[in-house]
Amino acid sequence: MKRTARRATQWAILFALWVALSGVIVTEFLVIGALSAAAGVLLSERLFTGTHEGAFASAPSSARWYARTALRFVLYLPWLGWQIILSNVHVVYLVLHPRMPIKPTLVEFQTTLVSERAQVTLAQSITLTPGTVTVDAFNGTFLVHCLSNTTRQAIADGVLQKKIAQVFDEPWVDHVELRDIESPEQVPM
Question: Which are the contacts of 101, defined by CB distance < 8 A and separation ≥ 6?
Fold first, then answer.
């Protein structure tokens, strides 16, 4: 029954997105939207079931968890948008400063996030924030390029991880231990 509730919730979200984006409330469009949402749910389940052989924590299957997580994610997006703006201002400062005070570093850290969806959200959020790029993410180990000490410190502070952990109801730490990668031999393969 939990699988049915999860599928129904996913279908409802995809169908609502279809209606919102199409803006047309005509029977033909609604039928096509309903069928497309059902195909999307079935196809994604077929494609992604068992792909990681239990390497990540699986999502709770309750519709309530999905609804609460979706709400927390929607509330996370404005915060991320503000961080992107602040990071843009910082990068503009670095570029326009006469001495260009950049200090590029490559750092590695282990995340406390246990689900694939949370780790992917972290990797994408880091990359969306100017001044940092997720170079690699594998089994909770992240390799990130930081443009300056400020962007490096933002990763070490762990605020981004904490926000994402709160969205997906996962554990977090208040500070992230970074390991500087100083030579090519230190890059994890």
Answer: 94, 148
Quote the tokens at residue 163.
Answer: 């926000």
Give residue 30's identity as a one-letter amino acid code. Answer: L
Q: Report the residue count for the chain.
A: 189
Quick check: helix, strand or coil at residue 21? helix
pLDDT tens string 43-95: 777 655 554 545 566 666 677 887 888 899 999 999 999 999 999 999 999 99
DSSP E strand boundaries for 74-178: 105-110, 132-138, 141-146
Are the beta carbons of 117 and 125 closer than 8 angstroms?
no
Whether the model clears a pTM of 0.85, i.e. scores above it, the answer is no
Q: At what angle do helices 63-96 and 116-128 cross, to 10 degrees?
A: 20
Q: With the C-alpha atoms ordered 127, 130, 135, 139, is the resulting torsion angle positive or negative?
A: negative
Tell me the Cα Rg of the chain: 20
Q: Within 10 A of 116 (CB to CB), how many other CB atoms are there?
A: 16
Angle formed by the axes of helices 2-22 and 63-96, nearest 10°: 50
Element (H, E) at 180: strand 179-181
Query: What is d(CA 57, CA 45) in angstroms, rounded to the nearest whole number?
Result: 16
